[in-house]
DNA sequence: GCCGTTTTCGGCCCGACTGTTTTCAGTCG
């Protein structure tokens, strides 16, 4: 942003969220408050700078923005704030809004704490609790004070989201333990943000179906790994595990399974919008089904919910985009990549470098997944810590691959490499060596902290190289860890599209790189992608499903993913087998 | 404050748990 103090989309969203919180505490109409929140969410979702929308005079075309909010946005962009926000900020200290982040504190209690006790921040709240000042307030009993104290502690203890891969594994383990103790479970699945493949997860939402829900709840609440039960009813139990992670189980009879899974998968706005469709039909939708005039229509399968409202089924990772429902209603939802589309894995490691499986073991695991070929891409010698391969060991490896191919035909193992892009931008192996391979995946592992220009130039050099077919994990980021290099991604997309070099969605849940927004931008720029596991053990091939999740969040069509192609078609697409500009 | 397959006015998602003012408000997912 050029001008100083310029408000970007996130800033605009933040201003309206702040306004909504403060007005809610003040006791304003909840519909008005919801309107500001809805506008804030629209600003977050805008595909272009809000300043550009304003310049075209199209602010009121943004969903949830009418004349009143449009005028406030204009003031905000011109002066950094607007009258109503200034007014309410002068009336209520902004720190009071922070109280809303504490479990069991909503707008009413935040106002009560501020008015009665002068609590203006989380620190003030802690102090008031320590001094026992919450107990005597009318309208806030000792029980509520205790829950608020617990909520404040849990906020400080568990204010973290887990990487998807960790949360997913933990959720599956929890489900396995629960199944042992509750054999009456007919169906059970991780829902919520895990099912939508968000890259980080704040809690586990578990949907289950059983004839006797209370028995399942009982088994869940008495698991040894439970630290604290937050609430419990006949169909539902929310608790905190000993590691501090929250888990929420909902159980209904199997005839409600579809609507329960739909409800728990969300996201919230997706759920609400379909419920609004139910209202438009003179009824209402809940986790039990569609009810109108005392009659309940239960939904046993999730697709039944969509079908009832005349919608195409929407894959969970696509549900966070409001456009999905509009398109599904017109029968125009685009096809996106599914796990079943994948015919190969083009990035995996064996015991020739830092993997744990042999070439044969990896090939057998891939064949068991239904793949028809793989590329073995062990590290090149420059990554010495990973026992990287030079020309001589590559020739030895070729002999082993030939033997496996002779045994497993028609399954086919390609010999590839994960080629280091050195700190100075040169590639780690000479062209003759690369030309002897079937496929080359290049990667920037080192020097990610170099400046934008230098690190971008290294990646561009790899993309332009006539023997490089794929750029692996293009940003180098680690989920919940390092941010990755400061690449000029727009330049990378353009050059990858021009040269026909594929960009990878590395499906290792610690990487997920490209991430969803990047993959979407890359496809829009005309790039071809790959979805690869980067597996280092045979079981790691299953991580491909996490990459498919990223692709679905990015609305990637299957025909833009290189490893959906049959082997012959893939080979024909490689630069080395075409005559192309270099 | 927004918005239109009931509507330009009068609606705005649903159900459940907790604690308590014991008939329901507040909070949550």
What does this structure look like?
The chain has 582 residues and is α/β, with parallel strands linked by helices. The chain has four domains: 9-157, DNA polymerase, domain 1, CATH 1.10.150; 163-252, Beta Polymerase, domain 2 (2-Layer Sandwich), CATH 3.30.460; 268-329, Beta Polymerase, domain 3; 339-577, TIM Barrel. The chain has 24 helices and 17 strands. The strands form four sheets. A seven-stranded parallel beta sheet has the order 11-12-13-14-15-16-17, with helices on one face. The protein has a five-stranded mixed beta sheet with strand order 2-4-7-6-5, with helices on both faces. It is globular. It binds one DNA strand of 29 nucleotides through α2, α4, α7, α9 and β5.
Give me some keywords for this one.
582 residues, alpha/beta, DNA polymerase, domain 1, Beta Polymerase, domain 2, Beta Polymerase, domain 3, 4 domains, seven-stranded parallel beta sheet, 17 strands
Task: Provide the fold topology.
Blueprint: H1 9-26, H2 30-45, H3 50-55, H4 67-79, H5 83-91, H6 95-98, H7 107-117, H8 122-130, H9 142-157, E1 162-163, H10 164-181, E2 185-190, H11 192-195, E3 200-201, E4 204-210, H12 213-221, E5 226-232, E6 236-241, E7 246-252, H13 257-265, H14 268-280, E8 284-286, E9 289-292, E10 295-297, H15 302-308, H16 323-329, E11 344-345, H17 359-368, E12 373-376, H18 391-408, E13 412-420, H19 431-435, E14 439-443, H20 452-464, E15 470-471, H21 489-499, E16 502-506, H22 516-524, E17 529-532, H23 544-553, H24 567-573
Parallel strand pairs: 4-7, 11-12, 12-13, 13-14, 14-15, 15-16, 16-17
Antiparallel strand pairs: 1-3, 2-4, 5-6, 6-7, 8-9, 9-10
The structure holds one DNA strand of 29 nucleotides.
